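Escalated from tier 1: glutamine holo job.
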Amino acid sequence: PYNATVVERLIDAGMVILGKTNTDEFTMGSSTENSAFGTTHNPWKLERVPGGSSGGSAAAVAANMAPLALGTDTGGSVRQPASFCGLTGIKPTYGRVSRYGLVAYGSSLDVVGAFGRQAVDLALIFSLIAGIDPLDATTSDIPVPEFNLDALVDLKDDHNVFLLNSADPSLNGLRIGVPDEYFLAGIQPQVESAVKEALHTLEELGAELIPVSLPHTEYALPVYYLIAPAEASANLARYDGIRYGPRIAAELLLDIYRRTRGEKFGAEVKRRVMLGTYALSAGYYDRYYGQAQKVRTLIRADFEQAFERIDLIAAPVTPTTAFSIGEHTDDPLSMYLEDIFTLPANLAGIPGIAFPVGFDQQGLPIGMQLMGPHFQEQRLFQTTFIYQQATNWHKRRPPRIHDINQNVEAKKFS
Ligand code: GLN
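Tier 2 regenerated the structure:
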């Protein structure tokens, strides 16, 4: 019945909306395997997931169906699929982009982001969608820097919108923090080596690498998986079969609620509604949701302290490259562990960008993420832009669609 503000703004700017893309149900997932429409395949290797939850958007851009796509990032749903599909993806600061027209998942975490092939694409779409919206009271009135794209490309920008002196296509003077906590045992060796190689390139371009510690990182996963389901359980209460969503008819009102919610929500959504409702229930609120909010404050403070000494933080996006379809579906915890490096930015509300920095032995893309202080998206675009001027990873494309089609035929993927 109406468009989201972000969609209206793209249409106003002359862009053509091609369609909606696949996602995990209510964006709860890391692989699109929780989608009611089926699983999206990764254009780089069809038996692998594209990531999630915005895996349909990432796969569409990676497969050359569209140059740009939108997605939302509550715990990594733009950065992780961007990484799995060899794309550049931006998760803006919380409150930077209007959520009017969006189905809410975790209201204190959700933000609309975008996928493209390179930082310049994202700077363009970000400049169109970001900014205050009277229809979303959480949007900030902090002005959105004007992205002068010619200037960004030519590096001759004289607006004072970028941290770096763009007359000088180097990263001289940029201090990049490298947190120990993001280089854990268990991370795929090729992911670690590609990210370290990219750090080396940033250093060669003039950045200074500074070890930093974000000591509460290990709590991000349990904190997120309490806060997000708690908020989701409240948000999804509106799907009662009366006002929103489909309805299963029954004689008694209570049966309409029970049957509609019982039959129409998928397994992962029900798991989270139950977990979240429990975490919010009388007697447990302080022990779970309240406690998680306190630890969230500590996670946010880790970043604030780090940003007193440094300009950006660099880390892997995910511990592994794209995993196989079905690999984690029987074990929700192992699926949740895929989000370990992306969740902290959502808990802190800070912006993050993911971009390709290499490929593993299977030919699957490896991503790196940069995180910045609140409302400093331009610093992320500029740094990634300079890295992409010096490297070619973002120019690689998956096997041609033609070959993919033959492959599908041969292997009979369903
Ligand atoms: N994978 C995370 C989750 O399932 C994040 C999803 C998202 O960002 N929407 O909650």
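Residues 338 and 409 are 31 Å apart (CA to CA).
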